[in-house]
Amino acid sequence: MKQCIEGSHAVARIVNLCRPGVISAYPITPQTHIVEDLSKLKADGEGDFEYVRADSEFAAASIVLGASAAGVRTYTATSSQGLMLMAEVVFTISGMRLPVVMTCANRAISAPINIWNDQQDVMTVRDSGWILLFAEDNQDVIDMHIMAFKIAEQTKIPVMVNMDGFVLTHTFEPIDLPTQEQVDNYLPKYVPEPGQYLDTENPVSLGCFATPADYINIRQDLQNDLINSKKVIKKEFVNFKKAFSRGSSDLTEYYGAKNAKVVFVALGSVVGTIKEVVDEIPDSAVLSVKCLRPFPAEEIIKKLAKAKYVAVIDKSISLGNEGVLATEIKATLRNSKTKVQSFVAGLGGRDITRKMVGNIYKQVQKSSSKLTFIK
Amino acid sequence: MKNNLAVEPGSSAKNKTGNWRTFVPVIDHDKCIACGTCARVCPEGCVFAVGDQALQGKIFYEKDLDYCKGCGICAEECPVKCIEMKLEEK
C-alpha cells in the first residue's frame, strides 16, 4: 500500500524491516532524520537492534565495523563531512570484506561550508572498494536498501546507497513500503560464514597485517570480486523485480528515444528532471547510472555507442580535471565516434532546472569545450 | 575471494619478518663479556643466550635472524662494542 511519507522516514522504516543487529551513527544534515527516526523506533520498542550512540562519524563507522566483524547485520548513515571523517574506516570495512550497508545522504563538501546537495562526498570514496548505488527517487531508495543487504552479504562487499540530500531525504512522496513478511521472504536471516567472524568459541583475528607478499593478492581479490559482483547485483535486481513487481533489471536505465542523437548521462535524482526534458525533445534520451561501482562499462557501451552526442551531467568535480562520471564515460566510449562532453551543475544545492538541461542539449551539439559549468 | 582473511591464533610464528633488515648484527664472541644487555634491549626479543656455558665460563648470545629487523639497538647499547652492524648482501 502506498503511503505519502518523507524519504528519510521511509529509509528508517525499511532499515528496521531488514532486521539489523547493530546500528551506529552520528547525526549530520541532511542525514539526520534517518538516524533520529531509527533511534526513535528503538526507544519506542519497535526496533529489535542495538543502537549505539557514537561521538563522531569515525567512531560510528568503527562501531559498525566491529559489530559486522562479530557476525551481525549492521547499518549506518552519513553525509558530506561525516563521510570524510569516516574515510579511513570506509576503506577498512571493504578491505576486511564486511557486508556493512550505509546510506549516504549526498551533500556538498566544505569549504565554503554548505549543507545542500551535490555528490562530491561519495566521489571522494569512489575508489574505496564499496558497491555504490544511486537512487533516482524515494521508491528507488527503499528498494535499494533491501537489495543492498542481500548483495553485501552474498558478495562480502559493503554497499553504499546514495540518495540526494534534501531532494530525496526531506521530500514527501508516495512510497510503496513493503510489509515485514515481504521483506523477510526476500531477505533471509544473516548467517555469517563459520570461521570468518569474531567468536570466542572459535577464535580468529580479522584485519591482520599483510606484507608485500600478500597485500597485492588481497587487493586483486577485492577487484575481481567487485567486477564479478555485477552479476550478483543484476541477479538481485531481477529477483527484486520478480518479488515486488517494480524496479529495473539493469545497472543502468535508458529512457527516451531509441538511438537518440543526444543522450544525457547522470546519477541520482536529477535524472527525474532530465526525463521531463527528454519527454519534450524527440531525439534525446537519458541514461541513469544506478550503480557507479562496480562500473557497468559493457552496458554503457551497448546503450551509448550509437549516440552522436553524450552530455554527462556531474554534481561533482575532480578539481583540476572535469566531472568525475564524464571522465569515465569518455574512457568507456573511447572506441566509438560518440562525442562526450562534461557538464558540471548543481554544486552546493544549486537547482538544475529543465531550462538548464535544455541548454545542455544545445551546447553539447555546438560547443567543444572540455568542461562547462551550468549555472 | 581466494585469500582467507581470517587468521587463526598462533600464526604470527609462521610470518617471518627478518627480510625487512638492511644491516645484520654480527657478535664478536672474543670481546663479549656476557652481560646480557643485548638480549634485554632487543625490541623483538630475538636475542637470546646460547647453551649453558661456553669456553672460559662465558655465556654466548646470538640472534634469531628470522625476526631480527636490524634496528641496531643491541650494537648501540653493548658496553664493550662487540656487536657490529654489517650491510647484508641479499
Oligomerization state: heterodimer
Task: Give unreliable regions of chain B as ranges.
Answer: none
Strand order of the largest sheet of chain B: 1-4
- Can you say what the CATH homologous superfamily of the largest domain in chain A is? Thiamin diphosphate (ThDP)-binding fold, Pyr/PP domains
Order of helices and strands of chain B: EHEEHE
CATH class of the largest domain in chain A: Alpha Beta
Largest sheet of chain B: 2 strands, antiparallel
User: Could you give the order of strands across the largest sheet of chain A?
Assistant: 3-2-4-5-7-6-12
Rounded to an integer, what's the Rg of chain A over CA atoms?
20 Å
**Gap from first CA to last CA of chain B:** 34 Å
- How would you sum up the global shape of chain A? globular
Secondary-structure content class of chain B? alpha+beta
CATH architecture term of chain B: 2-Layer Sandwich
Number of strands of chain B: 4
Shape of chain B: elongated
Order of helices and strands of chain A: EHEHEHEHEHEHEEHHEEHEEHEHEHE
What is the rounded distance between the termini of chain A? 40 Å
Tally of alpha and pi helices of chain B: 2
Biggest beta sheet summary of chain A: 7 strands, mixed
So how many helices of chain A?
A: 12
What does this structure look like?
The complex is a heterodimer of chains A (375) and B (90). Chain A is an alpha/beta fold. Chain A folds into two domains: 2-244, Thiamin diphosphate (ThDP)-binding fold, Pyr/PP domains (Rossmann fold), CATH 3.40.50.970; 252-374, 3-Layer(aba) Sandwich (Rossmann fold). Chain A has twelve helices and 15 strands. Chain A has helices at residues 7-17, 32-43, 57-69, 80-95, 120-124, 138-155, 180-186, 212-244, 270-280, 297-304, 324-332, 354-366, and strands at 2-6, 22-25, 50-53, 74-78, 101-106, 131-134, 159-164, 172-176, 252-256, 262-266, 284-289, 291-293, 309-314, 339-345, 371-374. Chain A has a seven-stranded mixed beta sheet, with helices on both faces. A six-stranded mixed beta sheet of chain A has the order 9-11-10-13-14-15, sandwiched between helices. In chain A, strands 1-8 form a two-stranded antiparallel sheet. Chain A is globular, with a radius of gyration of 20 Å. Chain B is an alpha+beta fold. Chain B has a single domain (19-87), classed as Alpha-Beta Plaits. Helix content of chain B is 11%, strand content 20%. Chain B is built from two helices and four strands, in the order E-H-E-E-H-E. In chain B, the strands form two sheets. In chain B, strands 1-4 form a two-stranded antiparallel ribbon. A two-stranded antiparallel sheet of chain B has the order 2-3. The longest helix of chain B has 5 residues, at 37-41. The termini of chain B are far apart. The A-B interface holds A 96-97, 156, 195-197, 203-208, 211, 214, 217-218, 221, 225 and B 1-3, 5-9, 11, 15, 17.
